[in-house]
Write a structure and sequence with these properties.
The complex is a heterodimer. By secondary structure, chain A is of the alpha+beta class. The longest helix of chain A is centred in the last third of the chain and has 25 residues. By secondary structure, chain B is an alpha+beta fold. Chain B has a domain of 198 residues: Diaminopimelate Epimerase, Chain A, domain 1, CATH 3.10.310. In chain B, 38% of the residues lie in helices and 21% in strands. In chain B, the strands form 3 sheets. Chain B has a 6-stranded mixed sheet, with helices on both faces. A two-stranded antiparallel sheet of chain B has the order 1-2. The chains are: A alpha+beta, B alpha+beta. Chains A and B meet through β9, β10, α3, α4 and α5 of A and β8, α8 and β9 of B. β10 of chain A pairs antiparallel with β9 of chain B, so a sheet runs across the interface.
Chain lengths: 347, 298
């Protein structure tokens, strides 16, 4: 059994209490009690009143693997979940930010495994044993830190465009090229562009499991973390906002270009001014799987809310080669057959 | 004495007739059914006009020396030769000499002489025009398959100097000998796989299946298809846009400027209508029949 740092204790019987994505609440395996968030918050309130302590966040760094773990200040960490090492340094940070919001897990571990196994369907080049359960080296449910950016982009583009008219008159074909100077501008509002706030997680992988449904974003509470792992962010808002800006600028530019009706165009000037840029620190649920196949590790991720499973699959070279040869031979046969049937006559 | 003179006179008249018996028999087209134009051609104004320009002769002679370039015995010998070649191969081998083309081109005259007389659909005709010094060879029907440009050029190459030296008999004899040789050899190499497809002598040639080209192109297409199918195996991609995070209803578009700067016009001349039948340089005569061949000056 995993040792979780965040161990919510069942108010009734003090057994470890985990968040259940299925029932969207906390189930105790031992006394069969079910608790909602309100229940747990009430319990905590009572506890705090007794102990007179504030609710603050701590970060822990594992000396062995460098994992940054998010934890409540007063929980005791003994083992690192990532590398099982017992060397954990408590690194209390002042004014550490608490996440604003969280999307709780909606998919269970079993659903993640099943989804992975399903990915093998209709992939002819995939080696058959790839989606075998035994290849799943590791599977972890992690709340990954994200920065969600809202911004309003004041975008302006200008450049030259060419319209071509072709017509025939007399014995000549005329081509008329009209050159125009164009300008387009607009204000584009973007909401909740997600940027991965941790160096540990591959940005491309995190991009690929987008989008998350932000309707299910709820106010953050530590209790949601129980039964799952959580990472603290190590990329600050200022460092990553340019990634969100870049994505927004590309979209704004292509939206403006949609309005151009030229046969060919060159954009000479682009001005993008972001306004009302706001960033929110949230935790989003992701099931991470590491598949080990033939001495290689294949990282897979499933969106813990929508169930979208993404990863790169190995190609069985022999199957690809066979397919290529088969199609090539089939096509040749077809074309030769067509030639023969028309008697191969050419004017 | 008087009886002797009388017989002498009669004899002279008959002998002179023999001397001038060389005149070629031509018939008046206006008295012939359809102006003497073979049934396979529809009567049109143009065709009638052209036919009237062409003498209507007895098609069994095969050699028509209007320009009197040959001696009687030479003409007889060549006639027999040409007739032998024509009947044995179902082709018409024709030789015609004239003095003037009268505003026709050698090609037109040769084509029409063959088409508007009863020579059949297949054959070859040699035309020699004295005053304009043109020699022309025209092929018709299956003649196009037997005689390609190469063979005709080689014949012309040989007989042109003969004609320049006024060796008319030798030139025509050579022509007939070459025709005999080529008939024995059969279809020319470049036309080996061609067949006549209609009464106008049009032909179509079989093109060999280009195995050399098919296989590589098919495998290139297969490569492309394979690439398409393997794309979904690499699904991890960095996002470069934020399209789904843009609230389209809230977009406000600002001013739109399209300012005309300048214009430039260029032109290219239209390609003229070149005939598509370049395989063996065939053309259609006024009758509509397909002919091959070429000519020279001597």
């Amino acid at each position: 059994m995993d040792n979780h740092i965040i161990d919510q204790k069942c108010p009734s019987c003090r057994a470890p209490l985990k968040y259940s994505p299925k029932t969207k609440g906390w189930d105790c395996e031992y006394c069969n009690s079910h608790f909602t968030l309100k229940d747990l918050q009430k319990v905590r309130e009572k506890k705090k009143k007794k102990q007179n302590q504030s609710f603050s966040t701590s970060g822990y760094t594992c000396k062995n693997c460098g994992a940054n773990i998010l934890a409540e200040e007063n929980t005791t960490a003994t083992t690192c979940i990532y590398c099982r090492s017992t060397a954990i340094l408590e690194n209390r940070l002042e004014n550490e930010l608490t996440p604003n919001a969280i999307i709780p897990f909606e998919k269970t571990k079993e659903e993640a495994i099943a989804a992975f196994q399903k990915t093998g369907i209709r992939k002819w080049f995939l080696p058959k044993e790839f989606t075998d359960k035994k290849n799943i080296n590791e599977i972890q449910g992690i709340y990954i830190p994200f920065w969600l950016f809202d911004l309003c982009l004041n975008a302006k583009i200008s450049g030259k465009g060419i319209r071509i008219h072709s017509f025939i008159s007399g014995e000549y074909q005329y081509t008329k090229k009209e050159t125009y100077h164009f300008e387009r501008e607009g204000i584009f509002p973007f909401y909740d562009i997600p940027v991965d706030g941790s160096k540990h997680f591959d940005d491309a992988l995190m991009n690929s499991i987008e989008p998350f449904d932000y309707k299910n974003l709820v106010a953050f509470d530590f209790s949601y973390l129980s039964g799952f792992l959580a990472e603290k962010y190590d990329l600050k808002k200022e460092e990553v906002k340019k990634i969100a800006l870049n994505r927004a600028e590309n979209t704004a530019s292509s939206e403006l270009e949609k309005n151009l009706s030229y046969s060919s165009k060159t954009i000479e000037n682009k001005t993008m001014i972001p306004e009302n840029l706001e960033g929110e620190y949230v935790l989003l649920p992701v099931w991470l799987l590491n598949i080990k196949y033939q001495e290689k590790i294949y990282p897979f991720a499933m969106n813990g809310q929508t169930g979208k499973m993404i990863g790169n699959f190995p190609l069985q070279k022999s199957k690809v080669l066979l397919f290529f040869l088969l199609i090539g031979i089939l096509l040749s046969f077809l074309i030769i057959l067509i030639f023969l049937s028309t008697g191969g006559y050419v004017l | 004495m008087k009886k002797l003179l009388f017989f002498l006179l009669i004899f002279c008249i008959f002998s002179t007739e023999n001397i001038y018996a060389k005149e070629i028999e031509t018939f008046d087209r206006r008295e012939e059914n359809r102006y003497g134009i073979p049934d396979r051609y529809e009567l049109t104004e143009n065709r009638i006009k052209r036919a009237l320009d062409i003498p209507y002769i007895n098609s069994s002679s095969k050699v028509y020396d209007f320009s009197k370039l040959l001696e009687e015995e030479e003409e007889e010998q060549l006639k027999k030769y040409a007739q032998k070649l024509s009947s044995s191969q179902n082709n018409s081998i024709v030789v015609v000499t004239i003095s003037d083309l009268n505003s026709n081109s050698p090609r037109e005259y040769a084509d029409d002489f063959f088409d508007y007389n009863e020579f059949g659909t297949d054959g070859i005709i040699l035309l020699i025009c004295l005053n304009s010094r043109d020699v022309y060879i025209s092929t018709s029907g299956y003649g196009q398959i037997i005689f390609d440009e190469k063979r005709i050029d080689s014949i012309l190459e040989n007989i042109t100097p003969k004609l320049s030296n006024q060796k008319y008999f030798e030139a025509i004899e050579y022509f007939l000998q070459e025709v005999e040789n080529n008939l024995k050899q059969g279809p020319s190499h470049s036309m080996k796989h061609c067949n006549i497809i209609n009464a106008y002598g049009d032909y179509r040639c079989k093109k060999e299946i280009p195995y050399l080209w098919i296989l590589p192109t098919c495998f290139i297409i297969s490569l492309f298809i394979t690439w398409l199918c393997t794309r979904k195996y690499q699904k991890i991609r960095l996002a470069t846009d934020a399209k789904i995070y843009l609230k389209k209803e809230e977009i406000t578009l600002g001013k739109k400027i399209d300012k005309f700067l300048h214009t430039s016009t260029s032109r290219i001349p239209l390609p003229t209508n070149t005939s598509s039948n370049h395989g063996s340089k065939t053309h259609h005569g006024s009758s509509g029949s397909s002919h091959g061949g070429s000519g020279r000056k001597f």
